[in-house]
């Protein structure tokens, strides 16, 4: 599907009119969504089968944050969301983690924050040093999550009742599995009407 779209968008083949371009963009968004769901299902299968392969390496927290921002910048621009970075000037400890998996978690959290924010709003992604640990966090200023669901949102396929944002209900569950596989924790702090803050805590 994506290769066919690339051919359609190639100006050497011909220029699309406005209606065709909108249709092309819609198809691409749906194809990307299907790829995302497929990836989540594959990750979940690995976790459930106990075959989660870890390839840890020394990684700077800022590299993980920058990856997540780059992966979500187009989505943020589409909704006019400003991504703010909070990162201490003092030297941050490095992490010994599977950078692809932790980057996936941050990317998922930032994507959620953008999708649950009001247009032309802002989200925050950052990190801080806390003793022997590094905390990386993503915060939005959307509608927040009812305290009744603070634990349930990490369950497979769970979606907060009444939510209108599309999703598979797998992202947070897989994110929690990935973080806990590193001996860390993934938690949420949220208040209705004020937004949500997801925190990854890992040993430095």
From TrEMBL:
Signal peptide start-end: none
InterPro entries, sorted: HATPase_C_sf (IPR036890), HATPase_dom (IPR003594), His_kinase_dom (IPR005467), HisK_dim/P_sf (IPR036097), Sensor_HK_Regulatory (IPR050736), Sig_transdc_His_kin-like_C (IPR004358)
GO annotations of cellular component type: plasma membrane
EC number: 2.7.13.3
Limits of the Histidine kinase domain: 1-204
CDD domains in alphabetical order: HATPase
GO-annotated molecular function: ATP binding; phosphorelay sensor kinase activity
Keyword Phosphoprotein included in the entry's annotation: yes
Main location: membrane
Keywords: ATP-binding, Cell membrane, Kinase, Membrane, Nucleotide-binding, Phosphoprotein, Transferase, Two-component regulatory system
Catalysed reaction, written as an equation: ATP + protein L-histidine = ADP + protein N-phospho-L-histidine
Location(s), subcellular: Cell membrane
Enzyme type, top EC level: transferase
Name by which UniProt lists this protein: histidine kinase
Species name: human gut metagenome
